[in-house]
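Structure tokens please, single chain.
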Amino acid sequence: MFSNKFIQQRIEKANILREAGINPYSNESQRNTTVEKFLNVNSDIEQKEDKRDENRIYTVSGRIKLLRIMGKASFVKIEDESGMLQIYVARDNLAEGFYNTIFKKHIEVGDIIEVTGYPFVTGKGELSLHANDLKILTKAISPLPEKFHGITDKEIRYRKRYLDLIMNAGVRKTFQIRSKVISLTRRFFEDKGFLEVETPMMHPIAGGANAKPFVTHHNALGVDRYLRIAPELYLKRLIVGGFEAVFEINRNFRNEGMDATHNPEFTSIEFYWAYKTYKDLIEITKEYFQYLFEHLDLPTILPYGDLEVNFDNFQEIPLIESLTTIGGVPADIVNDKEKIIAYLKERHIDVNAAMNLGQLQGELFDEFVEEKLIDPTFITEYPVEISPLARRSDANPAITERFELFIAGREIANAFSELNDPLDQLERFEGQMAAKDCGDDEAHAMDTDFVEALSYGMAPTAGQGIGIDRLVMLLTNEHSIRDVLLFPAMKPLTTEEEPCKSKEEE
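Here you go.
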């Protein structure tokens, strides 16, 4: 594993440090400030006559990212989580012999060091730390990739996220924003009076969405279990039980294809609100986005690739209307199954003739509308055939009180007034089971316990799911879900991985 000659050279240096009585993996750190705090607190040094203050003593720690060794003095740049700091290291300010025998020979880029000293401003105007003492905390035996090229191979970036984070401060920023989004989401719903709950991640039935599940086996019970594809049916059981506003920030698992917006393991928030309708969810969703933008200090007009997304411009349009006004589909075909099939085939789009009308309308939407929805758009009134858990509209039983929110051509949220009629729910499940028998392996399974729960009475309720991963993609201008997941799913390597090129190997 460590046969590379450059790694062997670094291992030898670690051994030399040990022989000199220096632990290359010390556990004793005296750090008393971060880089960011050091720079902020000492921003006034520039105003001093000699541009230094030897009475201010700080100890900082970080990884060496740049090392310029000269005769009697050197410049080092170290980085911690908060930023980068330049260190001036002079031979005569360190313990006798340390500079020539230890620092110059055995400390390298990638090592983690601790430095104590005072602030000063260099002749080029950079606030720096003048070192009075320096020690190594961690010897890196694997060299970092060559600085100016970093890691350009995305496969390596995803497989070795730790290395990606070391080399790319922008990547760390993305995941800091992701963490803030999750924290703010929790705070927003708690402030609204919602109760955070936890529901099972291993289900006896794959329910809550139309998706293909992962299957595992529970040895103690002697039964198969399905990794959660959605927490919906458990959360609605809690509404039956008397809770009126619940949410769960949850991990879900779907055994399906992978692309720029799909990973088999993903994060969402689902929340359920008694005595509300999907119209109320539209309003709370607008509030939620406003809350995020205010607390993340983001402009409401955000760039996303070549697009500009205006978060001051939320729109609402029924699905069937969107087919004609946005998708350009002729109005005379949108409610005719045979005409839709012919229309799709004429455009060389594969279509399953066994699909019902609602499914075909969904196909039209996917093909001709979705990618055109740039500003936040609530698509409403979905066909009942593709909404097995949503309440029918009282005005038109063929459609449901449902919306999906699309931004920058992608689905971000799904919501509806919940179906609480147990007989209607049973009939919908039976229809899904018939679809499964006809080969639809993503059709919803029968859940008799959930139907029984509904039979005890569930208050009128609205529920919604928001995809956290896709939301973070929008807010950070990332275009692959892998760029907002610390450890995305990857295909196993079949050959030995190409190592990252380090400066030593140049």
